[in-house]
Design goal:
The protein contains four helices and no strands. By secondary structure, the chain is mainly alpha-helical. It has a single domain, classed as Four Helix Bundle (Hemerythrin (Met), subunit A), CATH 1.20.120.160.
Length: 117
């Protein structure tokens, strides 16, 4: 056997080329679906805030921060991170305004998405 062994790459065995436009549409559809699904999370977050369940607010914000980051929805992730930071600092009086800001980010992103279609 010769050293180094020769390597043959058979590029004809590849599947059909990736349709970048369709992949982009699919990614955008997934982000839109994610944004719509956050509505129930925001309702739950609002209820926890109204009850004064600060631990639940922080938990929901943490979960939303991570899922938004995983979905590539950075603005929403950052807004949720600010809620989590308020909890860690003990700045509970800022929670209502930060939750409202989270609502605004989500609404703006949904609005931008609907205008783009």
């Amino acid at each position: 056997m010769p050293y180094p062994p020769s390597i043959s790459l058979d590029t004809t065995a590849c599947a059909a080329p990736i349709d970048c436009c369709r992949s982009l549409e699919t990614a955008q559809d997934l982000v839109a679906l994610f944004l719509q699904s956050t509505a129930q999370d925001l309702v739950e977050l609002d209820r926890a805030l109204a009850r004064g369940d600060i631990l639940k607010v922080a938990s929901m914000a943490h979960r939303l921060k991570n899922s938004a980051a995983a979905a590539g929805v950075e603005e929403l992730s950052q807004a949720a991170a600010r809620i989590e930071a308020c909890y860690r600092r003990g700045s509970f009086e800022l929670l209502p305004s930060e939750v409202e800001a989270l609502h605004r980010v989500q609404a703006a992103m949904l609005e931008n998405r609907s205008q783009a279609c």
